[in-house]
Amino acid sequence: MTDSTPRVVEQRGLYFDELEEGVVYAHKPGRTVTEADNVLFTTLTMNTQALHLDAAWSSTQPFGQRLMNSMFTLSTMVGQSVAQLTQGTIVAQLGLTDVTFPHPLFHGDTLYTETVVSGKRLSSSRPGQGLVTMQHTGRNQDGDVVALATRTCLMWTKDAHAAQSSVSEP
């Protein structure tokens, strides 16, 4: 008799043990950003910068149009990496450093992100967990780098997470 229960495959990120230094993780699909994204994010975060909200005034500025809010760009860039790298395998985000925006992102541009793991080490104080340093690069549809950020995360090892999960399940 065959078991009628289907096998379940749960989407998750990679564990500490699965992440490789120097590998480029390309996150697809890209995300085409819109005026609505920009206005909503900007107003939700109480950022009244006219470069994001005032089309007439922004047209008189050096880029000639409104710019996507850089915090939206950063958030989306990190967010694009989650499904592939950290979904369900992260313990905590520890910090972001070296954040730069070398080229503006405009309404209608598409943001593509890739991540390189630049370092990893097991935690000396948290057994079964490790620190991973990731370098995120966001590019527009023309390949122009629009954002860079270095991110450090505390990640589970596969065995420790399985052991912890089995203890917490009813």
Spatial separation of the terminal alpha carbons = 29 Å
- Quantity of strands, as a count: 5
Shape verdict: elongated
Weakly predicted, low-confidence segments:
none
Q: Give the helix/strand class.
A: alpha+beta
The major pleated sheet works out as: 5 strands, antiparallel
As a percent range, the share of helical residues equals 25-40%
**Secondary-structure element series:** EHHHHEEEEH
- Overall pLDDT, averaged? 95
- How much is the radius of gyration in Å? 20 Å
Strand proportion:
25-35%
Number of helices: 5
Q: Which strand order do you get reading across the main beta sheet?
A: 1-3-4-5-2
Please give a structural write-up.
The chain is an alpha+beta fold. Helix content is 27%, strand content 33%. It contains five helices and five strands; from the N terminus they run βααααββββα. A five-stranded antiparallel sheet has the order 1-3-4-5-2. The protein is elongated. The mean pLDDT is 95.
Structure described in brief:
The protein is of the alpha+beta class. The protein has five helices and five strands.
Give short descriptive properties of this protein.
alpha+beta, 5 strands
Topology:
Elements: E1 24-32, H1 35-44, H2 50-53, H3 55-58, H4 70-86, E2 90-100, E3 110-122, E4 129-139, E5 145-156, H5 158-168
Antiparallel strand pairs: 1-3, 2-5, 3-4, 4-5
